[in-house]
Amino acid sequence: MKLERLIISCGGTGGHFFPGLSIARTFRKQGGEVMLLLSGVNAQSQAQCAENFRIKAVALPVMPSWKRKPLAFLRGLCRGYRESVQTVKEFSPQAVLGMGSFAMTPVLLGALKCHVPVFLHDGNARIGRGNRIFSRWAKLLGAGFPAVNGDKCRCRVSDVGMPVRPELLECAGISRKEALDKLNAAFGCELKEENTTILIFGGSQGAAVFNSVLPQALKACGAQDIQVLHLCGKGKKVETEKLYSDAAFPVLLLESSDRMEYFLGSADAVFSRSGGSTLAELALFGKGAFLIPYPYAAEGHQQDNAEYFERNGAALVIGNEDFSVEKAVELLNNEVCAGNGKLAERGMAAKQLARPDASLRMLEEISAIIG
Q1: In a 10 Å sphere around its CB, with 0-12 CB exposed, 13-18 middle and 19+ buried, how is residue 224 labelled?
Q2: Bridge partners (DSSP) listed for residue 316
Q3: Cα angle at 62 between 65 and 204, to 5 degrees?
């Protein structure tokens, strides 16, 4: 039996939503019929994003964090469960895929109520608590990276990789010159191909430690012929701009960008957090990195992600508490601007970890099991 109808449950942060949307877009391109059921506080905006790609999406009732608002969580869960059961019955999917986090709870409970096979995906090296709980009822869990705690799952775990946006897949082979030209044209800057390009980004919310430490370190290291691309996060531009005000090197400073292919394609060195989507994109573009894991990530999963890249020679990991101006200056002088080939070596190692077929592999696993 061929997989033709699929519901994907995602929500919460972009790290759960965008991989689910990537799988949905891939499945739709194959001719399949797909619907997203979205939970969490961002469900409405995520539904609009999905519909921009002509993907059917339903925003379920708001279900805030159960730790902060347990009663509101339970009310949202109950209402979401009832709507999920109704939607599953009407859409009649052959499978339901949950993309991790407790935001998927009402949908997966609805799928089980309707006797629809449940599948899971986790985008980190450490399988999250929600996925571990639901694994006892799941047919399979697709992992974004080799799981450090795969033995805690009650279902089979398959290393399918982390899905990335189709736009990034299409541009993964972009040349550095072309990427720099695109940035110059889009933002009216004068980035030069002969300069070492340093990309700094801390995820969708930015990272305060990057915004404060790196501008100071870049000015203090005394490096010549560098240029900086810095995505500082929403509402952080004014304060970060002040720190760069007297910089002697070109700086393109933005809150965020939806054209990460140009930023990644331009970079020689990357300073970033180590979320699953970030690392999948770094691998796709073959970019070695200096990873500073977010210290408050659930169960320390960003540390596990970063260590996987470091073990494979694709990154250098620095603890958030250790990432001082002095440490950053040391890295810039000894690793980035030294011209010793370390950046290229890490980039090649990162490329070996890329899984551009992750969406296809997840769909193939589901199809094989329901068939």
Answers
A1: exposed
A2: 290
A3: 65
**Distance (Å, rounded) from C-alpha 43 to C-alpha 49?**
10
Instruction: State what percent of residues in the chain have pLDDT above 90.
Output: 85
State residue 205's pLDDT score.
58
Measured from the Cβ of residue 225, the count of other Cβ atoms closer than 10 Å reads: 10
Sequence-distant (≥ 6) Cβ neighbours of residue 219 within 8 angstroms: 246, 247, 248
φ, ψ of residue 58 in degrees (nearest 5)? -125, 125
**CB-CB contact of 165 with 284 (8 Å):** no
E strand intervals along the chain = 5-11, 33-39, 56-59, 95-98, 118-122, 140-143, 156-159, 196-201, 226-231, 251-254, 269-272, 289-291, 315-317
Would you state the pLDDT for residue 12? 73
Cα torsion for 230, 236, 239, 243, to the nearest 10°? -20
Q: How far is CA 351 from the centre of its chain?
A: 17
- Residue pLDDT, tens place only, 132-167: 999 999 999 999 999 999 999 999 999 999 999 999
Domains of the chain: 5-164+356-370 (3.40.50.2000), 167-352 (3.40.50.2000)
156-159 and 196-201 strand pairing: unpaired
> Mind listing the pLDDT tens digit for each residue in 177-208?
999 999 999 999 999 999 999 999 986 556 78
User: How far apart, in Å, are the Cα atoms of 33 and each of 26, 93, 315?
Assistant: 11, 9, 39
Angle between helices 43-52 and 14-29 (to 10 degrees): 30
CA-CA-CA-CA torsion sign (106, 109, 113, 116):
positive
Q: Are 25 and 56 in contact (CB under 8 A)?
A: no
**Matching residue, tokens 């199809």:** 367
Question: Among residues 290, 280, 252, 300, which one has the least CA distance to residue 353?
Answer: 280
- Beta pairing class for 226-231 and 95-98: unpaired
Which candidate, 257, 239, 79, 268, places its Cα nearest to that of 87? Answer: 79
Is the pLDDT at 1 greater than 80? The verdict is no
For residues 30-59, give the mean pLDDT. Answer: 93
Distances (CA, A) of 207 to 213, 256, 261: 10, 12, 20
